Amino acid sequence: MPEKEYTNEEKMDEVLPINQRNFLKPDIIGQTARESLVDYSNPRRKEIAVSPGGDIQAAINILDAEGGGTVLLKVGTHHLTSTISGKDGVSIIGEGIDITIIECGGSAYGLDYTGTAAIPLQNFKLEDFTLQNSNNAAGMNISFCFNWTMENVKVFSCDQVGISINASQAYSLNNVRSTFNTGNGWNFINTDASLSTPHQGFILINCYALENTGIGFSFVSSTYKIQEFTLLNCPSFSNGADGFDFDSGATYIIRDIFLVSCISDENSGNGYDVNSLTT
After folding, report:
1. pTM to 2 decimals?
2. Cβ partners under 8 Å of residue 17, min gap 6
3. Which residues in 30-157 belong to E strands, given as ranges?
4. In whole angstroms, what is the distance from residue 269 CA to residue 210 CA?
5. Fewest C-beta atoms under 10 Å: which of 105, 162, 168, 206?
6. Cβ burial, residue 175 (10 Å; 0-12/13-18/19+)
7. CA quadruple 110, 116, 121, 125: dihedral sign
């Protein structure tokens, strides 16, 4: 009698305990269910779907051990019990802003991708979700990361900075919104004391800073270099301080910047605050 063929989900539900079914369901192109269980590290696509209540960090760690992949966050509210620690080559993709929600619940949790000057994190995507109500130093923190993208993401109602990006290179952000945060909407900084990692080569398109208590978009190179970047159609509205602030240090200036169709309106501070050292 021929052996029964299964879909991935049917086979996973038969084999796995109930408490693991929400996140251990790889979706791998071109394999039968039996093959996907045996050969999970198929190089064409590695995905783990996580439903609300599932363990996002466990899914990330599994994919990290396999050399990378994608965590698919399903529709609903994902309540964090600790900060999510992103890994090299592991993407997090939801099903839409305000549809897939990462809820920090007022605790010092958030989403963190942190490499080092010697070993930066690379090659990941963050897409299609909302992160909200973080009391971490930044709701979303990206540090020492190269060659990554973020698209269709909202960081909302955090008690400190919304989004902080440090000492990173070659990244692009599209339709990312930092809104109603108690600190700055966006921080772009560089803390690399080795001087080997200029913060450079990035572009923001259709990114927003809206009704944050602090600065909308803050760029600070008083410590180390921030240079060679573009903002295209990035509005900054109704923030409690400057709309855009470019703060160069005497040694490490902000240079080679391009702003196109970036509107600053109804902010409590300056629309654009550019110190004399910025070029």
Report:
1. 0.83
2. none
3. 47-50, 69-73, 76-79, 84-85, 90-93, 100-103, 111-114, 121-122, 125-132, 138-143, 145-156
4. 14
5. 105
6. middle
7. positive
CA separation for the pair 111, 124 (Å, rounded): 13
**Which tokens is 104 given?**
């920090």
What is the tens place of the pLDDT at every residue in 74-103?
Answer: 999 999 999 999 999 999 999 999 999 999
Q: Which residues contact 189 (CB under 8 A, 6 or more apart)?
A: 164, 165, 166, 167, 199, 220, 221, 223, 226
Q: How far is 265 from 210, CA to CA, in rounded Å?
A: 10
What residues contact residue 157 under an 8 Å CB cut-off, 6+ apart? 132, 133, 179, 180, 181
User: And the tokens for 85?
Assistant: 């620690």
What's the first-to-final CA gap in the chain, in angstroms?
A: 75
Q: pLDDT for 97-140, tens place per residue?
A: 999 999 999 999 999 999 999 999 999 999 999 999 999 999 99
Burial-class residue 38 by CB neighbours within 10 Å (0-12, 13-18, 19+): exposed
